Amino acid sequence: MKKQPRFRRWHRLDNTANLFPVVASRRTTNVFRMTAVLRDTVDPGLLQRALEQTLPYYAAFGVRLRHGLFWSYLEANDSVPVVRLEQDVPCRYMDPLETGRFLFRVLYFENRVHLETFHVLTDGTGAMRFLKAICYRYCQLAYPDGTEQEKRYGLEQAGNVEDCYLKYSRPSKKAGYKEPSAFHIKGTKRLAGDVGVVSLLMPVTDLKRVCKESGVSIGEYLAALVLCSIRQAHMPAGGAKKPINLFVPVNLRRIFGGDTSLNFFSGMTVSQKFGPGPANFDAVLQDVKRQFAEKCTREAFEQKLAYTAQSEKNLFARMTPLLLKNGILRLIYEHSSHGSTTTLSNLGVVDVDEKFQPYFEGFRFLLPASPGEPLKFTACAYGGTLALNVTTLLDRNPLILQIAQHLVQAGVPITLESNGDEDETL
Amino acid sequence: MRMKHCDACQIDISTPAQICPLCGAPLMGQNGKRVYPVLGFGRKYHLVKRILLFWSIVTIAVCALINLATMPHFWWWLIVATSFGYAWISVPHVLRTGGNAGGKILMQVVCAGALVILLDVETGWRGWSVDFVLPAVFCIGIAAVMIVILCNLINWAGYVLYQVVLAVFGFVPLIFYWTGLSHVFWAAAIPAVMAIASITALALFGDKSIKNEFARRLRF
Question: What is the pTM of this model?
C-alpha cells in the first residue's frame, strides 16, 4: 500500500505568545514551573505512561514551534516526550533539541512532579490543567482501585485552542500603554545559571484572619507586603525617585468568560512610591486595595486587548516578513520592558478532583527570575496551606527575611523550604 | 524530634539546613528531606571546540602579523580570516543535531555564495565568482534539495519552503547577467532552468499536504 502523507494539525500562536519566541533566551527564559507534591515517591515508569496517555488530548501541548514566512505557528509533534529526573535549576531555557521539539518538560524528584512550560504554549491556568490531568492519570495507574479505570479526568478544555484575545477584543481608539520606568532591585548576582528557590508555607486560615482585620484580600495583602519589603530591604533609607512597580498577572478567563487552553492572561501594575522614613504598611495596604479595584476591571483589560489585538490585525504588520517583524518586536520589548520591579503571580486555590485529593500534598509554582527582575514571587494554595514561592538570582536576599518576619509578627506561622546548601544562607 | 526551628526568626525549616537560610543562626533539630536536587555539572564543556576556536583565532592573528610585516601591499591574511569565518559558520550549522535538511542546504548555499564573492573581492575582483561559481553553487543547492525530497517523499511538505527559496535564488544569476554584473550567459541560464524544473515538479507531482503546508507557512 502506498503511504499517504498525513495532514498535520496546527494552530496559530495566540496574541501574546507571538512575543515569547522573540525574547526568550538562556537568561530570560520565559519558562515557568508548576509542581505537584504527591503523597508518595513518584514511579517514573508510571509517570511516563500517564504523560503518554494524557498528551494526545492536550492540543496545546503536543506541538512544536515552526516558522512561516510571516508568522510562527505550532504544528502537531509526533515524537514522544520523556519524563526525566530533575537535575537542573528550575525554569531553565527550553532548548527544543533537548526535548524532542516539545516546548514543555515533565520532571520528577522524590515525591514531586514538575511541569515546565514555555510561555508560548499557555499560561498558568492552562499548564496547571495539564499537570493535574497527568497526575490524575498517574494516580489512577499507581493506585488502581478497581473502579472506573477507563474514565479520564481533567480533560474538559483540553482541545480548546481558540485565541480568546482576538475573540474578546473590541476595536478602540486608545493608543498603546506604557508603564513609567520603575525602581530595580540590585545586588550581587549568583553564579551564572544558579537560581535560588524558597517557598514560605503558611496556614491559609491564619493569613485570612490577618487579612480580614485589614479588610483586604490575600492577593492585596501579599502585594502590599512585597512592596513594603522591597522598600525596607533594597531601597536607600531616603527612598527613591522611581516607584516600585509590582506586575500582577490576571487570569482573563474569570473576567471575560472565554475558556481556552492557550494563553489568556493580562496584567496590571501596582505602583508605589516611597519617600524617606519607614514604610507605613497599613497606608500602603489601603492604597494597593484602591489600585486593585481601579485597575482590575473589564474596561481596563478591554483596552489592553484592543491594543495588542489591533497590532496583530494591522495589515502592515501582517505583510512584514517574520524576520523583520521579530526584530521590530525585540526593539519594542527592549524599549518598554523596564516598567516593572518584580512580579507577583497569585494562582489562588488549586482545586483537585475529590477522588484524588488524598494523593496530593500541595502545589508549588515558580516563575523564571531574569536580569531585569532578579526576584519573582508567586502564591498558590492547596489543602489549607498557602505557598509563597520566590525565585531569585541574587546572592543575598534580606527581602525574604523581611517578608517572613512581617508574617510571623502578624501571627502567621511559617515553614520554609529552599533549594540552598545546608550551610548557606539565601 | 521536631523539624529544624530558628529561634531568631521564629520559623520552621523543612529542608536540610545547619544554619537558618534567612538569618544565618545555627539550628538544632532534625534535618528534613531535600526537595530539590544537588546540582551537578550543568552545561557541557566542549573542550575540542574551544581548542579549535583558540587556534583559529591565534592562526589568523599570526598570519596578519606576518602579512603586514612582509608584504603590506597585498592583504592575504583577509583570505585566511574569511576561510576560517566560513568554516566556523557553516560546519557547526551542518553538524547541529536536529534541524531541517532543507534549511541546512539553504544555509550552506548562502555561506558558500558569500565565501566566493568575498574571496573574489579580496583577490582583486575579476568576476569569476558571479560568472561561474555562484551559478554552480545554486545548481548544487537546487539539485541537493531535490535529491533530499526524492529520498524522503513522504515529508516533501517539510522541505517545500526551502525548495521554493532556492528556486528563487536560481534566477539571481540571470538578473546579474542582465544588469551587467556577470558576463557568461550559458552559466547564468543553467540554474534558472533547474529552478523552473524544480518548481514544475512541485506543481505537477506535489500532493495536497503541500498545499496545506503553503497555507500555514505563508499565512499572513
Answer: 0.87
